[in-house]
Amino acid sequence: MKRQLKLVLGNRKLMFQIFFTLFIISIVCLGTSWPLPFINTKSLDLSKLYGFFPINAGTLFGLGITPYITASIVVQFLQKLLPICREWKDQGQMGKRKLNLLTRSLALLFAFGQSFAFLNSYSKLFVTSISTSQLFLLALIATAGVAILIWFADLINSKGIGNGTSILIVVSMSHSLINLFVNLNESYLSQNNFLTLKTFNFACIVLLLLLFLIFTLVVQITSLKIPINYARNQVQGKSYIPLKINSAGVMPVILASALLQPFQMLAGVIGNTKFTEVVDFFAKTTNFPENQINFFAIGFLVLLVIVFSFFSAFMNVNPEDISEHLSKQDAYIAGLRPGEQTTRYLANTLFKITVLGTVFIAALVVTPILVEHFLGLKDMKLGGTSLLIIVSVALETIQRIEATANKKEYQKLF
């Protein structure tokens, strides 16, 4: 531990990357609490809306980077559906730039639609009534905030440390967890409730979050190691292919939430119509004030998580590419022929361990909803999925810091 810390502190470039990333995060935190014109700051609590991402479109960076994630999902599907997008995918760097431009354009379009829908739905946010042109201007400002966040993510990728998009998501998630503990303190510990049922509920919630944290850490670092052999024995020691239990990472939760949010916001604009009822039926897991659980919505959410888990797992880990790489390195898995047999074995193994990872993610999604219902936590959102995202991104960032620090140490040897 001391050696790793010494390597990090002794690497000027790495320290600059860390401080640069922290500087960007501090700017994002300021922008997230900076209200837009005409907004009543006392009413901003009304804007804690849908899904796992805390949306607060009454502030400059309130939308977060969610529109960019939604646009990325759309572009990924377009690559499967539209021939021109498939051509761009195969055009190398030029095609990548075209796809990035399409993603960013769609992100700004989604950002404008979400911000306009949000602000139009919540008239209580404004100090006075505003005109349509003023509402249009506020939506443009919120859209500009999303554009700035996308730029910040690129800056972190190029000059900072870690994945810029993931880090900005974690910033939003951290706000929601902080709000959770503040609300818990106000509800349970601020009214002399020692040794009462409320104190017991508070202890249960904190214990549940700690268990989530420990279990998330274990799952994120656990992997199945498939041993590989080399035909010429050119590699000393044991080599293996690590397949994580949760190969999908945090993407299933992010994708499911990003898919539902636009429909929920659109329903808020349309109002009391059949469309709103349909959206609530599919997306509103708990119906307040009746405090009834919508099991169909929970089931639909779990279904989305399952679909995106397998989709993300096989996007992150391509058995065919691994098999091809093994063949080029004259490597093989014991008892299997290189090529199709190896690919099929890797695909089957990945499918089996992804089932375990999917059960874990589904439990993180469903358990907080049930706890909120049975403990009557109407104004709080437990952070099971938030913990998953924060822990995953934290582990990824720590691994990058260690890799960068060790890289300089290895360079000194040659």
UniProtKB/TrEMBL annotation:
Subcellular localization, as worded in the UniProt entry: Cell membrane; Membrane
Q: Topologically, how does it sit relative to the membrane?
A: Multi-pass membrane protein
Write out the entry's keywords from A to Z.
Cell membrane, Membrane, Protein transport, Translocation, Transmembrane, Transmembrane helix, Transport
GO CC terms of this entry: plasma membrane
Which GO terms fall under biological process for this protein?
Answer: intracellular protein transmembrane transport; protein targeting; protein transport by the Sec complex
Which residue ranges run through the membrane? 14-35, 55-78, 99-122, 134-153, 160-180, 200-219, 295-317, 350-370
Entry keyword Protein transport? yes
Concerning InterPro entries, the annotation shows:
SecY, SecY/SEC61-alpha, SecY_CS, SecY_dom_sf
For this UniProt entry, what is the primary localization, expressed as one broad class?
membrane
Its subunit composition reads: Component of the Sec protein translocase complex. Heterotrimer consisting of SecY, SecE and SecG subunits. The heterotrimers can form oligomers, although 1 heterotrimer is thought to be able to translocate proteins. Interacts with the ribosome. Interacts with SecDF, and other proteins may be involved. Interacts with SecA.
Described purpose of this protein according to its UniProt entry: The central subunit of the protein translocation channel SecYEG. Consists of two halves formed by TMs 1-5 and 6-10. These two domains form a lateral gate at the front which open onto the bilayer between TMs 2 and 7, and are clamped together by SecE at the back. The channel is closed by both a pore ring composed of hydrophobic SecY resides and a short helix (helix 2A) on the extracellular side of the membrane which forms a plug. The plug probably moves laterally to allow the channel to open. The ring and the pore may move independently.
Matching NCBIfam families? 3a0501s007
What protein family is recorded?
Answer: Belongs to the SecY/SEC61-alpha family.
Name this polypeptide is given: Protein translocase subunit SecY
Organism, scientific name? Mulberry dwarf phytoplasma
